[in-house]
Amino acid sequence: MLLIYCPNCLEYREEEEFSYGGEAHIARPLNPETLSDAQWADYLFFRTNPRGIHHEMWYHATGCRRYFNATRNTVTYEILETYQVGTQPQITGTEA
Amino acid sequence: MKRYSGFSLLKNALSYHENWQKVWRNPTPKKDYDVIIVGGGGHGLATAYYLAKIHGITNVAVVEKGYLGGGNTARNTTIIRSNYLWDEAAQLYELSLKLWEGLSQELNYNVMFSQRGVLNLGHNLQDMRDIERRVNANRLNGIDGEVVTPQRIKEIAPLINISPDSRYPILGASWQPRGGTARHDAVAWGYARGADALGVDMIQQTEVTGIRRKDGAVVGVETSNGFIGARKVACVTAGNSGVVAAMAGLRLPVESRPLQALVSEPIKPCLDTVVMSNAVHGYISQSDKGDLVIGAGVDSYNGYGQRGSFHVVEHTVQAICELFPAFSRVSMNRQWGGIVDTCPDACPIISKTSVDGLYFNCGWGTGGFKATPGSGYVFADTVANDRPHPLAEAFNLDRFNTGALIDEHGAAGVAH
Amino acid sequence: MRQLNRLLAAGRTDQNKVLNFTFNGKDYQGVAGDTLASALLANGIDVVGRSFKYARPRGIFGHGPEEPNAIMQIGSGASTIPNLKATQVELYEGLEAASVNGWPSVNFDIMGLIGAFGRLMPPGFYYKTFMYPKKLWMTYEHFIRKAAGLGSSPVESDPDSYEKLNQHCDVLVVGAGPAGLVAAREAARTGARVIIADEQSEFGGSLLASTQLIDGLSATQWVADITKELGAFSNVQRLPRSTVFGYYDHNFLAILERRTDHLGISAPSGPRQCMHRVRAAQVVLATGAFERPLVFAHNDIPGVMLASSVSTYVNRYGVAPGNRLVLAVTNDNAYQTAIDWYHTGRTVVAVVDSRTAPNGVLVEQVRALGIQILEGHGLIEAVGSKRVRKALVAPINEAGSEVTGSVQSLVCDLIASSGGWSAAIHLSSHTGAKPVWDASVVSFRPGESKQQERSAGACKGTFGVLDGLIEGANAGAEAAKLAGFGEGQVQFPTPLIDQIIEQPQQALFLVPHSKTTSRAPSQFVDFQLDVSAAGIELAVLEGFESVEHVKRYTALGFGTDQGKLGNINGMAILAKALGQGIAETGTTIFRPSYTPTTFGAIAGRDINHLFDPERYTAMHRWHVDSGAEFENVGQWKRPWYFPQVNETMQQAVDREGLAVRNSVGILDATTLGKIDIQGPDAAEFITRMYTNSYLKLAPGKCRYGVMLKEDGMIFDDGVCACLSENHYLMFTTTGGAAGVLSWLELWQQTEWPELQVYFTSVTDHWATATVTGPNARKVIAKVCQDIDLASESFGFMDWREGTVSGVAARVFRISFTGELSYEVNVPAHYGRYIWEQLIEAGAEFNITPYGTETMHVLRAEKGFIIVGQDTDGSMTPADMNMDWVVGKNKAFSFIGKRSLERSDSVRENRKQLVGLKTLDPSAVLPEGAQVVNDPNQPIPMSMQGHVTSSYYSASLGHSIALAVIKGGLSRMGDTIHCPAADGSSIAAEIVSSVFYDPTGARQND
């Protein structure tokens, strides 16, 4: 069970307080109507799903009710950082 | 291949079991093959078997990074049923169920397919509407099933709690008598033995690290033990599909998540069917050894760790104690996780790709084990003929572009 | 009955406190401090169980969680517990124990005859047979299942409760043996919060059976002192009878504390067991080690035990489980058992040592006692049926691979063996650390730490007590430091204890037999599942080379002892068969649970009515008092219908519906989700979320909207009202409320943070009573004077603020029935009051409370959809014939819009919502019925869609149904068929989905 640092509450809290929000940094296309079906599908359904470093959204559902981002290793489950929506991760790459 | 039978058992017993044949060879890889199957799980082995058996393509290697059947084949809760809602899924799973029904004899390997029936419980009025809808659809598709009352459920599973005072009382269920369970390891071993006998090479402890292409077509795979050439490469690597796809520069609409399961200590037989519940979220059967085999829900986050979070297990056990209050004093012996590749519509991808000679079979989510024979059958046909098998057509990759999804979420009950 | 094996030296038991118990229905006596196992041994009980496959008689083999044979059913009735190990059951007055296998009795088991055919049942035999004829498999399986299982599940509900405790600590010490105790003490003195947990009834671990002196005290006195010392720290929590059974991510560990199991009928009321869910900053694993038995022929006969178990029964429990001991060893350590046995006054027949010329300290002590030592010998076979009678020993070669001389027979009734010790690396392995084989200690050691943990003492492969004490103290100090306490320096002096210098042990696992393994009598590796050395070799012969394959093929390690006794022996035998070392062969990954964990404790309190919270409206009690039947909708309990005396559901629904259509009805609509939305960009935001526009919605006005997911499929619907400028109230479906709020927050926070808009769930703040029907206005007029109810000033889809029966209220003129409707919203705590006021005001119009079923009928008559019933996640607004709700010209591409243009979304022949009118007006189509064009088409039939909603409409006098049908909107007037399970079929005509008042005159009134 994960222990997650909420960057808004500034506390470590139990995973049960959070819900997972999927891959982070996927911007909604500004002009969806100009996209082909394939481009739109890419936005809708296709995710990087890496084995290793993953930037993902979490939602502090029973806490501050804020979404934030986390950099987590999908193999070890280690959370390397959490950071605010709209900011960039410090840790990037694919391998832990 | 020396056939197995009661007689062969007796004969070998007299010679102290010193003369049994190997179940499969342990060959050195050839320089190249007609088809390389990446992934030696149940689906990959079934694909290899049907390629050889039905399509006569025997110059085939199954390349497995660990040991045969060591991934999700070894980690699932062995439930088999075909009562899916949508025509496309139902027909595929029903093909699979029909193959299960003759599989032990086909393979001369007892996969212990036990048709003890599957109950999918309904706990509220909408559950019951969905169950009616699904059972009606199944029936008109030629798939057995009926809607049963709580009293009938109690006859089938006497320890179940049908009290109307439960938090989510059982209002009814769908009942598929032909559903059941099978011995998971035996399926992998049976297919491997059968494929080996037809000339397929099992290359274990060899990890595929790259997919070599030339002029937009596949030419072979890089492995931890060197390059192996192939005219066609068929990837069946549940739990790792995205990683393998990336080797060919492809992306897949799959996310890999932990799916947990657990077993109790062996107890005397007291549950002679499979019980699944979507609303309270748990499913349970009892193995021939006596273990209660229990499945949990998929963890919410992506993970390749073959383990999930404890609260998911807690919730599952709560659900089981709701359904079977008597099991509260039984103990959990072991818990574990698998990695499931989930698609947005909870249906698989069985598809050609934009790379010539490269095929993918993935995204089975929690429904993979039951599909093993059918999946291998249609995938072998797809690979052999370089066009989708009619039952695989709907499961193409293009459906995510067009929007023609086959949404089995919710409507099919627990999608396991 | 006399306890013939009870010694005068009582060990840790109190022989003055006699406890009565029964085993397999017979009365016995034990003493306080006994386990069930020690009591059975004291009474000379040999056979306690039967093996799983061959039904061979089995006796007590170990003294802890490694016990494979003594599996018991404890107690009876609803509180019976299956599968407890007798070695872990503390004896209490009145305990009832029974063997889990053996019929008619464990001493004479008819199934034992099958054991005679054991050769016909090698590993995997069932894969090779029972296949023909095909149809007989279920019959074969029926008989196979008869032999399944150990104990029995209760059949009644569990009378006990279970508790959970969420805890944080700085240092969690697992195991209170020598290393754990000193680790805890070092951590405690730094001020760190320490939890120390141990599975046994008292702290001390191996020291409880030790004869060594520590600091000049007996080991047990030293344990008592340090345990007391730990108790004096206010920052230390001591948890005996507490098993750390799982080590999960981010240093989360789960502990099962057994509170009352050892008290029997004297147990106080209260939780039986408590699950501690611990988040530890640092962990010290001090879980000890398991002794490995030697594998030899017929090593499963009762009277064969682990050497350390014999010592434990003698020293800790004052029980000598036999008279004439033969001890088979590969190491110095186990010689202690010969010494212990010698001091009971019973006979040590011989020590059989596989090594040539052993001369360690303990060896010499044994020699000095005049005990015969057979050097370079192996104990190759035990002889006996229900108790050992003889041990066959023979010289073996130095490699331990073959018998080199003649066999001699030693008369004995007890064989103890030791093949060395295996570190208990289970918890470290749970974290994903890969164990490392260390040939120097003939054991795996824990792999590189994956979490904030370290191992100390025997579980790290450090088997000497002194070394374990040093390692434990260091580990405790280090853990505390890393948790932020102390400097990492050990403070307490190292306890004084004689270090016994041991000569090297021999890595011997399978003792050779005169015959080859395949022909020798069974040499058991995993007792519970009858896995033998020959079985492992056979698996290799058949080509199973991976350790996982062999485990799965033979079932090695799959018993309830989880391979604690046999796994390493099995792997060593496998490695040898493969001609490679143990390190290359690898190990299997241990998974939780360390020992079996009660489901009830895992579930805790969250069962029965706490399984999921029940939500009630403020009017709930009134509904209950009025005899309502309830429906679960999400977590809510909603009145389903209000039957009057002797009324069927259909009669009640007919009556309720007619009341609404002809006079007035009242519905508790409190459960609809309500989200208060404010901010200068609220209208823009809402417009992006719904398919239609809210930019021009004026204060006082309401609008119905549909929300899509980004894939274009309907996800929720409801009315949104403009309360004032920049202030809106959004209604959601009852079940969708939480999901919609998260959805709004997702988009605002992650995609459009520049939009100033704020959301608050106010579902629980308001109670809502819907007054609906042609007399609704008259009812409201009686209780509300400050709102002009005239249609021209308070029209359909308007809302007004006012006072209802003296309570400030929001009144919405929105309608889900198609009738003139007022939804009266008041602060929740006035809910019941307003409800009763409205009932009273409506009395003269026979105002009729109605439930969700009538609500469904009334809305279906109007063709209003219910999201989740008429839609299923694959329906667009166009599919629902609701193109009118899609603002195609909105400036912003609202959520889901682009997906509505995908090729599949605009394809012909999509399923579309239509009405169905059965040709027989009284026939009600089943909801979920599939629709076909030709009822006589052979199976598989071409299904055109299905019935989503279906009712008998009392006000229309015929049945009505909604269905989604391929191309349905262009098939008006067609006849379709719904085949039923019994072969019959109901024919119906495709009609408009609006059955009642198509112009909307009544709701607009």
Description:
The complex is a heterotrimer of chains A (96), B (416) and C (1005). Helix content of chain A is 9%, strand content 34%. Chain A is globular and about 45 Å long. The model of chain A has no long low-confidence stretch (mean pLDDT 95). Chain A contains one helix and six strands; from the N terminus they run βββαβββ. Chain B is an alpha/beta fold and 416 residues long. Helices cover 29% and strands 25% of the residues of chain B. Chain B has eleven helices and 18 strands. Chain B has helices at residues 6-14, 42-53, 87-101, 103-107, 125-140, 150-156, 184-197, 241-247, 310-323, 368-385, 399-402, and strands spanning 32-38, 60-63, 79-80, 118-122, 146-148, 172-176, 180-181, 201-203, 208-214, 217-223, 226-235, 255-264, 274-277, 282-286, 292-298, 331-342, 349-352, 358-362. Among the domains of chain C are: 14-126, 2Fe-2S iron-sulphur cluster binding domain, sarcosine oxidase, alpha subunit, N-terminal domain (Ubiquitin-like (UB roll)), CATH 3.10.20; 162-286 and 465-482, FAD/NAD(P)-binding domain (3-Layer(bba) Sandwich); 640-670 and 766-858, Gyrase A, domain 2, CATH 3.30.1360.120; 673-761, Alpha-Beta Plaits (2-Layer Sandwich), CATH 3.30.70; 904-1004, Aminomethyltransferase beta-barrel domains (Elongation Factor Tu (Ef-tu), domain 3, Beta Barrel), CATH 2.40.30. In chain C, the strands form 13 sheets. In chain C, strands 8, 9, 12, 13, 14, 15 and 28 form a seven-stranded mixed β-sheet that branches. The radius of gyration of chain C is 38 Å and the shape is elongated. Chains in contact: A-B, A-C, B-C. At the B-C interface, helix 1, helix 5, helix 7, helix 9 and strand 16 of B face strand 6, helix 3, helix 4, helix 12 and helix 13 of C.
